[in-house]
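ugh ok fine here u go
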Amino acid sequence: MPTPPTILCNAQGERLDHAFHSAPDGSGNLLVLIGHGVTGNKDRPWAVALAEALAAAGYSSLRFSFSGNGDSEGDFRDSTITKEVADLRAIVDAVTKSGFSHIAYAGHSMGGAVGVLAAAADPRLERLISLAGMVFTATFAATEFGETTPGSGFMWDKPECPLSEAFVSNMNAIGDVLSQAPDIRVPWLLVHGEEDDVVPIQESRDILARAGSNATFVSLPGVDHVFSSDAGLAAMIAIVLDWLGK
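structure:
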């Protein structure tokens, strides 16, 4: 069993907070990286529950906070999709050097958009899981923060999450991640709650239409954006484990 790195840093030298979950028998041959969404961190309840379930099922996992988020180093105002793609690439570099040769990525919300961009360009990601994955980045920025002034306002009125011009500009420059869908040639699972009021479920349906036959989509009735109900969380985890088992 490879030994995970104790220190993870991005290209800027900023330390990325992370937690490693090993399969009980130490024999897991797949490492699942778990990334969060906007204003999130590695300790979101869905991320912890998923990591623990993966380990119990025989899959090692590593949940982490992108730079500027949670306890990771860096300035939150610099947190953009482009920077987070680079963070993920740095983590893949590190775990690959540590001996992990089979790597999957599970990304939630904006972390899902990060996953699409990363997996489309990096063949080392052998499987991709999009959980309530964001597709239309410019639309998201306009819908959620269109009435907030970058540089002086906050995301969802959270003082610890200032809305920056860098974030808005990057979301607009990307626009959407639809064009990357055909470039993802590895097994790809998309899971989305039908009651998601942050990233509409239609976004997963739209990108599925651009994806190849390697993509699988599962909708969850009555489930919200963060899988907050016990039933919704259990359903998401069961789908992920069943899919990985196949």
